[in-house]
Amino acid sequence: MAIMETWAGLGSALGSVIFLYSLLGKYFPYHIDAYVRRHTRRLFAAVYPYVQITVSEYRGEWMKRSEAYAAIESYLASSCSQHANKLKADFGKDSTNLTLSMDVHEEVTDEFEGVKLWWSSHSTTRSAPSPWSPAPEERRSYKLTFHKSQRDLVVSRYIDHVMAEGKAVTVRNRQRKLFTNNPSSKWDGYRSKVWNHVLFEHPASFDTVAMEPGKRKEILDDLDTFRRGKEYYANVGKAWKRGYLLYGPPGTGKSTTVAAMANHMDYDIYDLELTTVKTNSDLRRLLIETTSKSIILIEDIDCSLELTGKRRQKSKKEEEESEEKKLPGEEKDESSRVTLSGLLNFIDGLWSASAGERLVVFTTNHIEKLDPALIRRGRMDKHIEMSYCSFEAFKVLAKNYLAISSHRTFETIRGLMEEVNITPADVAENLMPKSVDDHDHDAETCLESLIQALNVAKEEAASKAAAGEAIAGKEDKGTNVGESN
Ligand SMILES: Nc1ncnc2c1ncn2[C@@H]1O[C@H](COP(=O)(O)OP(=O)(O)OP(=O)(O)O)[C@@H](O)[C@H]1O
Ligand SMILES: [Mg+2]
């Protein structure tokens, strides 16, 4: 930084000369004055041959945190922090790994392809913009200073290098997060938090999710292709996103699969609870605040909203009735509410404008209830059925829970599983120890209890079928009687 300081000194000396001249300038004839002024400017440019670039922390609409700022922060923390005297400490996962970053008003030197560049960090505090604002605003920024002869190098290569390296460091160090949205009603002010987060530490992986090996491979291949597809998506002019729809009965592992997907991809999860989002513009704001490399998850989409019902044309009578029920002053049209078309517009439109990889995952227990517009290919690119536990899936669970890959009871279990439906959740339940001091917990007991559960389910199914037949028989008879009359 010594060179910078020398230049700064020179700059201020020059400043004094210019100030003196401006005092005495009125005593010089006009043409001399103009000449001197022109040349001082040139001289100043010649003796202060540096260019500065400033990157602020917040920018644009909704004061979104600048990704460039975050990348520079990580880059400087990893590449240059050893040269800085004042550092800021952040404790990472489990308060074990400490990350150091540059404190405000600190300067560091970086070197790139043999060229020296200087970074400094700044902070200005503005008094609260309005009396009801909670606190004065702090505006942080980084300033990059370099010699003007290096402008091309900086613009064409160095900035890209900083961004790429910074993002890579962020991914390496980051603790993944599970975000949940705050209800719209709790937002106050334009900088309020719309998402809350906790650390995402779900242990699920594709090795532990019980599913057909073929299906597992298909999903993994699809995810890996997506991850490598940046250029492909850019070439075909599509936003880098992919939609998944996981459907199936409760307890078949939909939520577990989403966690495994997040772990496989190293993504954050944004668990979007649509019922607490009031309007389409609130939804838009929530989605804008999501970062790249994330899964946007909407669970139980059929229950989240009357998404299907909204499109159904209300009969005239129904409409009149609902108008009557409204209180005076209550909004007449529902156009401001979150709607299916609003949701579809965001899925299609929003991310085409912003770069970055995102998976959109919907889960449902009732695929048949969903509007076909919501799940057509292109929106939901991949439909994955999560079904009852097959024997192959059971083997995965037996391996995870009991650490066995074969047992004399396996054949019986295979036979029973072909006859009755049991969810992986129920299988897992049977394979777990029943209490902390369950000393007899061993493979044998667990498998026996599973067989028992399967037998009970089989009996239930049989008695249900018998009852069903009896009712059907009665109805048949009824019809017959009716017909004969
Ligand atoms: N395929 C599976 N592989 C491994 N474990 C499973 C699987 N399916 C269910 N489980 C176990 O059962 C529990 C419930 O599963 P999960 O929450 O993933 O089901 P779900 O399909 O999301 O159900 P819901 O429709 O009720 O939300 C999990 O804690 C998990 O341990
Ligand atoms: Mg679930």
Automatic annotation (TrEMBL):
CDD domains: RecA-like_BCS1
Composition-biased stretches (Basic and acidic residues): 316-334
Single annotated GO MF: ATP binding
Domain named AAA+ ATPase: residues: 240-390
GO BP: response to stress
Obligatory cofactor(s): Mg(2+)
Catalysed transformations (reactions): ATP + H2O = ADP + phosphate + H(+)
Keywords: ATP-binding, Magnesium, Nucleotide-binding
Region (Disordered): 310-334, 465-485
InterPro entries: AAA+_ATPase (IPR003593), AAA_N_dom (IPR025753), At3g28540-like_C (IPR058017), ATPase_AAA_core (IPR003959), ATPase_AAA_CS (IPR003960), Mitochondrial_chaperone_BCS1 (IPR050747), P-loop_NTPase (IPR027417)
Family according to the record: Belongs to the AAA ATPase family. BCS1 subfamily.
Protein known as: AAA-ATPase ASD, mitochondrial-like
